[in-house]
UniProtKB/TrEMBL annotation:
<dbReference type="InterPro" id="IPR004839">
    <property type="entry name" value="Aminotransferase_I/II_large"/>
</dbReference>
<dbReference type="InterPro" id="IPR015421">
    <property type="entry name" value="PyrdxlP-dep_Trfase_major"/>
</dbReference>
<dbReference type="InterPro" id="IPR015422">
    <property type="entry name" value="PyrdxlP-dep_Trfase_small"/>
</dbReference>
<feature type="domain" description="Aminotransferase class I/classII large">
    <location>
        <begin position="60"/>
        <end position="423"/>
    </location>
</feature>
<dbReference type="InterPro" id="IPR015424">
    <property type="entry name" value="PyrdxlP-dep_Trfase"/>
</dbReference>
<dbReference type="GO" id="GO:0030170">
    <property type="term" value="F:pyridoxal phosphate binding"/>
</dbReference>
<feature type="modified residue" description="N6-(pyridoxal phosphate)lysine">
    <location>
        <position position="267"/>
    </location>
</feature>
<protein>
    <recommendedName>
        <fullName>Aminotransferase class I/classII large domain-containing protein</fullName>
    </recommendedName>
</protein>
<dbReference type="GO" id="GO:0004838">
    <property type="term" value="F:L-tyrosine-2-oxoglutarate transaminase activity"/>
</dbReference>
<keyword id="KW-0663">Pyridoxal phosphate</keyword>
<comment type="similarity">
    <text>Belongs to the class-I pyridoxal-phosphate-dependent aminotransferase family.</text>
</comment>
<dbReference type="Pfam" id="PF00155">
    <property type="entry name" value="Aminotran_1_2"/>
</dbReference>
<dbReference type="InterPro" id="IPR005958">
    <property type="entry name" value="TyrNic_aminoTrfase"/>
</dbReference>
<dbReference type="GO" id="GO:0006572">
    <property type="term" value="P:L-tyrosine catabolic process"/>
</dbReference>
Length: 434
Protein backbone atom coordinates (compact mmCIF):
# COMPACT_ATOMS: atom_id res chain seq x y z
CA UNK A 1 0.00 0.00 0.00
CA UNK A 2 3.04 2.16 -0.42
CA UNK A 3 2.45 4.75 -3.10
CA UNK A 4 4.87 6.80 -5.13
CA UNK A 5 4.95 9.61 -2.59
CA UNK A 6 6.27 7.42 0.17
CA UNK A 7 2.97 7.53 1.98
CA UNK A 8 1.05 4.40 2.81
CA UNK A 9 -2.41 4.60 4.14
CA UNK A 10 -5.24 2.16 4.47
CA UNK A 11 -6.74 1.06 1.21
CA UNK A 12 -10.01 -0.31 2.52
CA UNK A 13 -13.44 1.18 2.64
CA UNK A 14 -14.27 -0.89 5.70
CA UNK A 15 -13.37 1.65 8.31
CA UNK A 16 -16.63 3.49 7.94
CA UNK A 17 -18.63 0.34 8.28
CA UNK A 18 -16.52 -0.71 11.23
CA UNK A 19 -16.79 2.67 12.85
CA UNK A 20 -20.49 2.71 12.28
CA UNK A 21 -20.79 -0.69 13.92
CA UNK A 22 -18.61 0.18 16.91
CA UNK A 23 -20.32 3.50 17.36
CA UNK A 24 -23.66 1.88 17.87
CA UNK A 25 -22.57 -1.30 19.51
CA UNK A 26 -19.87 -0.25 21.95
CA UNK A 27 -21.73 -1.05 25.15
CA UNK A 28 -21.77 -4.71 24.42
CA UNK A 29 -18.18 -4.76 23.24
CA UNK A 30 -15.87 -6.36 25.74
CA UNK A 31 -12.79 -5.43 23.72
CA UNK A 32 -13.26 -1.74 24.32
CA UNK A 33 -10.97 -0.17 26.89
CA UNK A 34 -12.90 1.87 29.41
CA UNK A 35 -13.20 5.37 27.91
CA UNK A 36 -11.20 7.91 29.93
CA UNK A 37 -13.40 9.18 32.73
CA UNK A 38 -11.62 12.39 33.54
CA UNK A 39 -12.46 15.22 31.21
CA UNK A 40 -11.64 18.91 31.43
CA UNK A 41 -15.23 19.96 31.88
CA UNK A 42 -15.93 17.14 34.35
CA UNK A 43 -13.06 18.10 36.66
CA UNK A 44 -13.79 21.84 36.37
CA UNK A 45 -17.39 21.10 37.38
CA UNK A 46 -16.22 19.20 40.47
CA UNK A 47 -13.84 22.02 41.40
CA UNK A 48 -16.68 24.52 41.13
CA UNK A 49 -18.75 22.41 43.52
CA UNK A 50 -15.87 22.59 46.01
CA UNK A 51 -15.97 26.40 46.32
CA UNK A 52 -16.88 27.50 49.85
CA UNK A 53 -20.23 29.34 49.64
CA UNK A 54 -19.23 31.31 52.74
CA UNK A 55 -16.32 32.94 50.89
CA UNK A 56 -17.46 36.49 50.17
CA UNK A 57 -14.79 36.97 47.49
CA UNK A 58 -15.73 36.23 43.90
CA UNK A 59 -14.70 32.92 42.37
CA UNK A 60 -11.95 33.36 39.78
CA UNK A 61 -11.88 30.81 36.95
CA UNK A 62 -8.42 30.08 35.52
CA UNK A 63 -9.33 26.63 34.29
CA UNK A 64 -11.63 27.38 31.39
CA UNK A 65 -11.09 27.53 27.62
CA UNK A 66 -14.02 29.84 26.98
CA UNK A 67 -13.57 33.53 27.80
CA UNK A 68 -16.72 34.58 25.90
CA UNK A 69 -18.51 35.58 29.12
CA UNK A 70 -15.99 38.34 29.93
CA UNK A 71 -17.08 41.66 28.38
CA UNK A 72 -13.61 42.30 26.94
CA UNK A 73 -13.69 39.05 24.98
CA UNK A 74 -17.10 39.61 23.40
CA UNK A 75 -17.05 38.70 19.71
CA UNK A 76 -17.11 41.27 16.94
CA UNK A 77 -20.39 42.87 15.85
CA UNK A 78 -19.52 41.81 12.30
CA UNK A 79 -20.00 38.17 13.31
CA UNK A 80 -23.19 38.83 15.27
CA UNK A 81 -24.69 40.72 12.34
CA UNK A 82 -23.70 38.01 9.85
CA UNK A 83 -25.60 35.42 11.90
CA UNK A 84 -28.64 37.68 12.38
CA UNK A 85 -28.77 38.52 8.66
CA UNK A 86 -28.49 34.89 7.60
CA UNK A 87 -31.22 33.89 10.03
CA UNK A 88 -33.59 36.69 9.01
CA UNK A 89 -33.13 36.11 5.29
CA UNK A 90 -35.25 32.95 5.71
CA UNK A 91 -33.07 31.35 3.04
CA UNK A 92 -31.36 28.98 5.44
CA UNK A 93 -34.15 27.21 7.25
CA UNK A 94 -33.56 23.91 5.46
CA UNK A 95 -30.91 21.20 5.66
CA UNK A 96 -27.48 21.94 4.25
CA UNK A 97 -25.56 19.33 2.21
CA UNK A 98 -23.77 16.96 4.61
CA UNK A 99 -20.34 18.31 3.63
CA UNK A 100 -21.53 21.85 4.33
CA UNK A 101 -22.97 24.78 2.36
CA UNK A 102 -20.82 25.33 -0.75
CA UNK A 103 -20.49 29.04 0.09
CA UNK A 104 -19.16 28.20 3.55
CA UNK A 105 -16.75 25.58 2.20
CA UNK A 106 -15.45 28.01 -0.41
CA UNK A 107 -14.99 30.73 2.21
CA UNK A 108 -12.95 28.43 4.46
CA UNK A 109 -10.89 27.22 1.48
CA UNK A 110 -10.02 30.82 0.60
CA UNK A 111 -9.42 31.76 4.23
CA UNK A 112 -6.94 28.90 4.75
CA UNK A 113 -5.32 29.28 1.31
CA UNK A 114 -4.15 32.78 2.23
CA UNK A 115 -1.39 31.15 4.33
CA UNK A 116 -0.54 28.28 1.96
CA UNK A 117 1.81 27.91 -1.02
CA UNK A 118 -1.07 26.36 -3.04
CA UNK A 119 -4.84 26.83 -3.19
CA UNK A 120 -7.42 24.67 -1.44
CA UNK A 121 -10.62 24.05 -3.38
CA UNK A 122 -14.21 23.89 -2.21
CA UNK A 123 -13.90 20.08 -2.20
CA UNK A 124 -11.05 20.16 0.30
CA UNK A 125 -13.23 21.61 3.07
CA UNK A 126 -15.95 20.02 5.21
CA UNK A 127 -17.99 22.13 7.61
CA UNK A 128 -18.34 20.58 11.08
CA UNK A 129 -19.99 21.17 14.44
CA UNK A 130 -16.99 22.97 15.90
CA UNK A 131 -13.50 21.57 15.93
CA UNK A 132 -14.80 18.80 18.20
CA UNK A 133 -16.74 17.19 15.37
CA UNK A 134 -13.79 17.66 13.04
CA UNK A 135 -11.77 15.52 15.51
CA UNK A 136 -14.55 12.94 15.50
CA UNK A 137 -14.71 12.84 11.70
CA UNK A 138 -10.92 12.62 11.26
CA UNK A 139 -10.44 9.81 13.76
CA UNK A 140 -13.50 7.89 12.59
CA UNK A 141 -12.39 8.09 8.97
CA UNK A 142 -8.97 6.68 9.88
CA UNK A 143 -10.08 3.86 12.17
CA UNK A 144 -9.55 0.28 11.00
CA UNK A 145 -8.71 -2.97 12.77
CA UNK A 146 -5.22 -2.93 14.29
CA UNK A 147 -4.55 0.75 13.54
CA UNK A 148 -2.79 3.03 16.00
CA UNK A 149 -2.57 6.80 16.36
CA UNK A 150 0.15 8.92 17.95
CA UNK A 151 -1.10 11.58 20.39
CA UNK A 152 0.80 14.36 22.19
CA UNK A 153 1.31 14.30 25.96
CA UNK A 154 0.29 16.67 27.43
CA UNK A 155 -2.63 17.01 25.05
CA UNK A 156 -6.33 17.56 24.60
CA UNK A 157 -8.32 14.70 26.20
CA UNK A 158 -11.01 14.53 23.50
CA UNK A 159 -8.48 12.89 21.14
CA UNK A 160 -7.88 10.07 23.56
CA UNK A 161 -11.57 9.56 24.27
CA UNK A 162 -12.50 9.70 20.58
CA UNK A 163 -9.69 7.31 19.58
CA UNK A 164 -10.87 4.85 22.23
CA UNK A 165 -14.43 4.95 20.86
CA UNK A 166 -13.07 4.24 17.38
CA UNK A 167 -10.92 1.34 18.64
CA UNK A 168 -7.78 3.15 17.55
CA UNK A 169 -4.82 2.08 19.66
CA UNK A 170 -3.35 5.15 21.36
CA UNK A 171 0.40 5.74 21.62
CA UNK A 172 1.65 8.87 23.37
CA UNK A 173 4.70 10.89 22.44
CA UNK A 174 5.98 13.58 24.77
CA UNK A 175 6.18 17.30 24.21
CA UNK A 176 9.46 18.50 25.72
CA UNK A 177 9.14 21.49 28.09
CA UNK A 178 12.87 22.35 27.94
CA UNK A 179 12.61 22.61 24.16
CA UNK A 180 9.61 24.92 24.20
CA UNK A 181 7.23 21.94 24.16
CA UNK A 182 8.49 20.65 20.81
CA UNK A 183 7.51 17.15 19.75
CA UNK A 184 9.92 14.42 20.89
CA UNK A 185 10.54 13.22 17.34
CA UNK A 186 12.79 10.37 18.53
CA UNK A 187 9.82 9.06 20.49
CA UNK A 188 7.61 9.38 17.42
CA UNK A 189 10.16 7.38 15.42
CA UNK A 190 10.23 4.70 18.09
CA UNK A 191 6.44 4.47 18.41
CA UNK A 192 5.51 4.41 14.73
CA UNK A 193 4.99 1.15 12.87
CA UNK A 194 3.19 -0.01 9.73
CA UNK A 195 -0.17 0.28 11.52
CA UNK A 196 0.27 3.93 12.48
CA UNK A 197 -2.34 5.95 10.61
CA UNK A 198 -1.66 9.46 11.91
CA UNK A 199 -0.05 11.70 14.47
CA UNK A 200 -1.80 14.65 16.08
CA UNK A 201 -0.28 18.04 16.74
CA UNK A 202 -1.99 21.04 18.31
CA UNK A 203 -0.57 24.35 17.18
CA UNK A 204 -0.73 26.89 18.83
CA UNK A 205 -0.79 24.51 21.77
CA UNK A 206 -3.40 23.55 24.27
CA UNK A 207 -2.45 23.00 27.10
CA UNK A 208 1.11 24.37 26.73
CA UNK A 209 0.61 27.71 24.96
CA UNK A 210 3.54 26.88 22.68
CA UNK A 211 3.90 27.70 18.97
CA UNK A 212 5.81 25.39 16.64
CA UNK A 213 8.45 26.91 14.37
CA UNK A 214 8.50 26.43 10.60
CA UNK A 215 11.60 24.24 10.95
CA UNK A 216 10.05 22.02 13.58
CA UNK A 217 6.87 21.52 11.54
CA UNK A 218 9.03 20.61 8.56
CA UNK A 219 10.73 17.94 10.69
CA UNK A 220 7.33 16.65 11.77
CA UNK A 221 6.34 16.39 8.10
CA UNK A 222 9.57 14.57 7.21
CA UNK A 223 9.08 12.08 10.05
CA UNK A 224 5.48 11.41 9.04
CA UNK A 225 6.48 10.90 5.42
CA UNK A 226 9.29 8.54 6.35
CA UNK A 227 6.90 6.31 8.30
CA UNK A 228 3.93 6.74 5.96
CA UNK A 229 1.29 8.26 8.18
CA UNK A 230 -0.58 11.51 7.86
CA UNK A 231 -0.62 14.50 10.18
CA UNK A 232 -3.75 15.77 11.91
CA UNK A 233 -3.12 19.41 12.78
CA UNK A 234 -5.46 20.98 15.32
CA UNK A 235 -5.29 24.68 14.54
CA UNK A 236 -8.28 25.81 16.56
CA UNK A 237 -6.01 28.60 18.02
CA UNK A 238 -4.68 29.62 14.60
CA UNK A 239 -3.17 33.12 14.56
CA UNK A 240 -3.62 33.52 18.33
CA UNK A 241 0.11 34.11 18.84
CA UNK A 242 1.83 36.88 20.74
CA UNK A 243 5.43 35.70 21.09
CA UNK A 244 8.35 35.77 18.67
CA UNK A 245 7.15 32.92 16.44
CA UNK A 246 4.48 33.47 13.80
CA UNK A 247 1.73 30.91 13.30
CA UNK A 248 2.60 28.51 10.46
CA UNK A 249 -0.16 26.16 9.29
CA UNK A 250 0.88 22.52 8.91
CA UNK A 251 -0.78 22.56 5.48
CA UNK A 252 2.31 24.41 4.22
CA UNK A 253 3.94 20.96 4.16
CA UNK A 254 1.01 19.26 2.42
CA UNK A 255 3.16 18.23 -0.54
CA UNK A 256 5.52 16.37 1.82
CA UNK A 257 2.75 14.61 3.72
CA UNK A 258 -1.06 14.81 3.60
CA UNK A 259 -2.44 16.97 6.41
CA UNK A 260 -5.91 17.09 7.89
CA UNK A 261 -6.32 20.60 9.27
CA UNK A 262 -8.95 21.00 11.98
CA UNK A 263 -10.25 24.40 12.97
CA UNK A 264 -13.22 26.48 14.04
CA UNK A 265 -14.28 30.02 14.82
CA UNK A 266 -14.69 29.06 18.51
CA UNK A 267 -11.43 30.45 19.87
CA UNK A 268 -10.32 33.14 17.45
CA UNK A 269 -13.77 34.72 17.33
CA UNK A 270 -14.53 33.78 20.97
CA UNK A 271 -17.81 32.06 20.10
CA UNK A 272 -17.43 28.39 21.10
CA UNK A 273 -21.21 28.20 21.59
CA UNK A 274 -21.85 28.78 17.88
CA UNK A 275 -20.51 25.30 17.06
CA UNK A 276 -18.97 26.11 13.71
CA UNK A 277 -15.77 24.48 12.53
CA UNK A 278 -14.11 22.66 9.66
CA UNK A 279 -11.88 19.88 8.48
CA UNK A 280 -9.65 20.64 5.49
CA UNK A 281 -7.63 18.17 3.45
CA UNK A 282 -4.23 19.65 2.58
CA UNK A 283 -3.22 17.18 -0.05
CA UNK A 284 -1.90 18.64 -3.30
CA UNK A 285 -0.76 15.16 -4.42
CA UNK A 286 -4.24 13.64 -4.07
CA UNK A 287 -3.12 10.83 -1.76
CA UNK A 288 -6.14 11.03 0.52
CA UNK A 289 -8.43 10.58 -2.47
CA UNK A 290 -6.48 7.61 -3.83
CA UNK A 291 -6.42 5.89 -0.47
CA UNK A 292 -10.17 6.42 0.03
CA UNK A 293 -9.76 8.56 3.15
CA UNK A 294 -11.82 11.25 1.42
CA UNK A 295 -14.60 8.70 0.83
CA UNK A 296 -14.50 7.74 4.51
CA UNK A 297 -14.78 11.40 5.54
CA UNK A 298 -17.74 11.96 3.21
CA UNK A 299 -19.37 8.72 4.29
CA UNK A 300 -19.05 9.60 7.95
CA UNK A 301 -20.52 13.07 7.39
CA UNK A 302 -23.46 11.49 5.56
CA UNK A 303 -24.50 9.83 8.82
CA UNK A 304 -23.66 12.75 11.14
CA UNK A 305 -25.55 15.80 12.33
CA UNK A 306 -24.65 19.10 10.61
CA UNK A 307 -23.94 22.56 11.99
CA UNK A 308 -26.95 24.87 11.89
CA UNK A 309 -27.51 26.02 8.31
CA UNK A 310 -27.83 29.77 9.02
CA UNK A 311 -24.56 29.64 10.98
CA UNK A 312 -22.88 28.10 7.96
CA UNK A 313 -24.41 30.76 5.73
CA UNK A 314 -22.89 33.47 7.93
CA UNK A 315 -19.39 32.01 7.70
CA UNK A 316 -18.26 33.82 4.50
CA UNK A 317 -19.15 37.20 6.08
CA UNK A 318 -17.49 36.28 9.37
CA UNK A 319 -14.27 35.12 7.71
CA UNK A 320 -13.92 37.98 5.24
CA UNK A 321 -15.44 40.99 7.01
CA UNK A 322 -13.95 40.77 10.51
CA UNK A 323 -11.60 43.71 10.97
CA UNK A 324 -7.96 43.23 11.90
CA UNK A 325 -8.52 45.51 14.95
CA UNK A 326 -10.69 42.89 16.58
CA UNK A 327 -7.98 40.21 16.40
CA UNK A 328 -5.28 42.68 17.38
CA UNK A 329 -7.19 43.81 20.44
CA UNK A 330 -7.59 40.20 21.63
CA UNK A 331 -3.96 39.34 20.93
CA UNK A 332 -2.69 42.42 22.75
CA UNK A 333 -4.78 41.50 25.76
CA UNK A 334 -3.53 37.89 25.73
CA UNK A 335 0.06 39.12 25.51
CA UNK A 336 -0.58 41.43 28.47
CA UNK A 337 -2.28 38.80 30.65
CA UNK A 338 0.29 36.16 29.72
CA UNK A 339 3.02 38.61 30.87
CA UNK A 340 1.18 39.14 34.16
CA UNK A 341 1.13 35.35 34.58
CA UNK A 342 4.87 35.03 33.92
CA UNK A 343 5.76 37.83 36.34
CA UNK A 344 3.52 36.80 39.20
CA UNK A 345 4.35 33.10 38.93
CA UNK A 346 8.04 33.95 39.43
CA UNK A 347 7.11 35.08 42.95
CA UNK A 348 5.73 31.64 43.80
CA UNK A 349 8.40 29.14 44.91
CA UNK A 350 6.40 25.98 44.55
CA UNK A 351 5.50 26.67 40.91
CA UNK A 352 7.94 26.74 37.99
CA UNK A 353 7.18 27.73 34.44
CA UNK A 354 9.64 26.04 32.06
CA UNK A 355 8.31 27.81 28.98
CA UNK A 356 6.27 30.99 28.88
CA UNK A 357 3.21 30.99 26.63
CA UNK A 358 3.57 32.30 23.06
CA UNK A 359 0.08 31.51 21.84
CA UNK A 360 -3.41 30.15 22.63
CA UNK A 361 -4.69 31.10 26.11
CA UNK A 362 -2.90 28.67 28.43
CA UNK A 363 0.38 28.05 30.16
CA UNK A 364 1.57 24.77 31.73
CA UNK A 365 3.46 25.09 35.01
CA UNK A 366 5.07 22.52 37.28
CA UNK A 367 4.26 22.01 40.94
CA UNK A 368 7.23 21.48 43.23
CA UNK A 369 5.50 19.24 45.75
CA UNK A 370 8.62 18.79 47.86
CA UNK A 371 8.24 22.43 48.96
CA UNK A 372 4.68 21.87 50.14
CA UNK A 373 3.88 20.23 53.45
CA UNK A 374 0.35 18.90 53.05
CA UNK A 375 -0.42 18.66 49.32
CA UNK A 376 -0.49 15.16 47.84
CA UNK A 377 -0.61 15.90 44.13
CA UNK A 378 -2.01 18.30 41.51
CA UNK A 379 -5.62 17.20 42.09
CA UNK A 380 -5.23 17.78 45.84
CA UNK A 381 -3.65 21.19 45.14
CA UNK A 382 -6.52 22.28 42.90
CA UNK A 383 -9.28 21.04 45.21
CA UNK A 384 -7.73 22.74 48.27
CA UNK A 385 -7.11 25.90 46.24
CA UNK A 386 -10.76 25.98 45.15
CA UNK A 387 -11.99 25.43 48.70
CA UNK A 388 -9.64 27.86 50.45
CA UNK A 389 -9.16 30.61 47.85
CA UNK A 390 -12.10 30.29 45.42
CA UNK A 391 -9.70 30.03 42.49
CA UNK A 392 -10.14 27.34 39.85
CA UNK A 393 -7.12 25.90 38.03
CA UNK A 394 -6.98 22.73 35.94
CA UNK A 395 -4.90 19.84 37.37
CA UNK A 396 -2.28 18.75 34.83
CA UNK A 397 -3.23 15.09 35.17
CA UNK A 398 -6.40 15.87 33.18
CA UNK A 399 -4.27 16.77 30.15
CA UNK A 400 -1.74 14.00 30.73
CA UNK A 401 0.89 15.52 33.07
CA UNK A 402 0.57 14.66 36.73
CA UNK A 403 1.68 17.32 39.20
CA UNK A 404 1.49 20.12 36.68
CA UNK A 405 -1.19 22.81 36.34
CA UNK A 406 -2.80 24.39 33.31
CA UNK A 407 -3.52 28.06 33.90
CA UNK A 408 -5.80 30.07 31.59
CA UNK A 409 -4.91 33.73 31.22
CA UNK A 410 -7.83 34.69 28.97
CA UNK A 411 -9.48 36.74 31.70
CA UNK A 412 -9.47 40.41 32.68
CA UNK A 413 -6.11 41.56 34.12
CA UNK A 414 -7.51 42.59 37.54
CA UNK A 415 -9.07 39.20 38.18
CA UNK A 416 -5.90 37.50 37.00
CA UNK A 417 -3.73 39.56 39.42
CA UNK A 418 -6.17 38.82 42.21
CA UNK A 419 -6.15 35.06 41.47
CA UNK A 420 -2.36 34.82 41.24
CA UNK A 421 -2.09 36.71 44.54
CA UNK A 422 -4.43 34.20 46.16
CA UNK A 423 -2.40 31.30 44.71
CA UNK A 424 0.75 32.87 46.18
CA UNK A 425 -0.78 33.10 49.67
CA UNK A 426 -2.13 29.58 49.35
CA UNK A 427 1.34 28.26 48.50
CA UNK A 428 2.95 30.22 51.36
CA UNK A 429 0.40 28.84 53.81
CA UNK A 430 1.05 25.27 52.66
CA UNK A 431 4.81 25.53 52.24
CA UNK A 432 7.25 23.61 54.44
CA UNK A 433 9.45 26.55 55.39
CA UNK A 434 6.78 28.78 56.84
C1 LIG B 1 -11.42 24.09 22.25
C2 LIG B 1 -10.65 23.07 21.52
C3 LIG B 1 -11.26 22.22 20.57
C4 LIG B 1 -12.74 22.22 20.35
O1 LIG B 1 -13.14 23.30 19.59
P1 LIG B 1 -14.70 23.60 19.29
O2 LIG B 1 -14.69 24.40 18.07
O3 LIG B 1 -15.23 24.35 20.48
O4 LIG B 1 -15.39 22.29 19.14
C5 LIG B 1 -10.46 21.33 19.87
N1 LIG B 1 -9.15 21.25 20.07
C6 LIG B 1 -8.52 22.02 21.00
C7 LIG B 1 -7.05 21.87 21.20
C8 LIG B 1 -9.25 22.94 21.76
O5 LIG B 1 -8.64 23.67 22.69
Amino acid sequence: MENGNGVKLMENGLSLKLQNGTHWGFRGNKDLDTPPEITIRGVLGMLKDTIDPADTRSTIPLGHGDPSCFPFFRTTEVAEKAIADALQSANFNGYAPTAGLPSARRAVAEHLSADLPYKLSVDDVYITIGCTQAIEVALSALARPGANILLPRPGFPIYEARAAYSHLEIRFFDLIPEKGWEVDLDAVEALADENTVAMVIINPGNPCGNVFSYEHLEQVAATARKHGFLVISDEVYDHLTFGSKPFVPMGVFGSIVPVLTLGSISKRWMVPGWRLGWLATNDPNGILKKTKIVDCIKGYLNISADPTTFNQAALPQILTKTKEDFFQKIINMLRHTSDICDQRLKEIDCITCPHEAEGSMFVMVKLNLELLKDIRDDMDFCFKLAKEESVIVLPGVVVGLKNWLRITFAIDPCSLEDALGRIKYFCQRHSKQK
